[in-house]
Design a protein that fits this description.
Blueprint: E1 2-5, H1 19-22, H2 30-44, E2 50-53, H3 62-71, E3 75-79, H4 86-94, E4 100-102, E5 104-111, E6 114-121, E7 132-136, E8 149-151, E9 162-163, H5 164-174
Helix pairs in contact: 3-4
């Protein structure tokens, strides 16, 4: 199975409360949030699944980011977010914890005889053709809805990972996600 997600913000704490305060997340503290989101990821994803991660995994050091990625199931393909450091992503590729990282990525996926083009980015992009689906994060649920777009950030989708088949089914029903 292929899953898409973004914006976990592991270890994101600052003087104003960090991600829990900023996004009104329902966690008591950062360690609880980290643990519960890792457990949820691993309850959905199997080792053989593919996960396209659309940025902003962690605010931690190289060691802490490695700690989180080491616990996550699946083959991870990484789209760089505004809080991700290239040096850390290169390190994760070199030690085999993520497959690759890019700023944007596009691929085709066929389901039921129809080819869909997926445009992956940390930032919102509006597709201009049918059967093109823009997948993004970054907005934490604060974005303008448009035909063919979905914010897969955890704050927008109930802290879940969204399967590519569910995205297509919803797209076919509504043409707007």
């Amino acid at each position: 199975m292929i899953y898409l997600t973004s914006d976990h913000h592991f270890d994101h704490v600052n003087k104003t409360g960090g991600i829990i305060t900023f996004c009104n997340r329902p966690f008591r503290d950062i360690p609880t949030m980290n643990r519960e989101m890792i457990n949820h990821w691993n309850s959905v994803v199997q080792d053989w699944d593919e996960v396209y991660y659309l940025g902003d995994l962690s605010f931690g050091s190289k060691k802490r980011v490695g700690y989180f990625v080491n616990q996550l199931k699946g083959k991870i393909y990484f789209i760089k977010g505004n809080h991700d450091k290239s040096q850390i992503l290169n390190f994760l590729v070199n030690i085999g914890k993520i497959e690759w990282w890019e700023y944007n990525y596009e691929f085709d996926y066929e389901k039921d005889g129809v080819t869909y083009t997926f445009i992956l980015s940390h930032y919102q992009h509006q597709p201009i053709k049918d059967n093109v689906i823009s997948i993004f994060g970054h907005s934490h649920g604060n974005y303008t809805r448009f035909k063919g777009g979905i914010d897969v950030g955890v704050d927008n989708v109930g802290y879940d990972l969204i399967s590519i088949d569910n995205i297509i089914e919803h797209y076919k029903k509504t043409k707007e996600i």
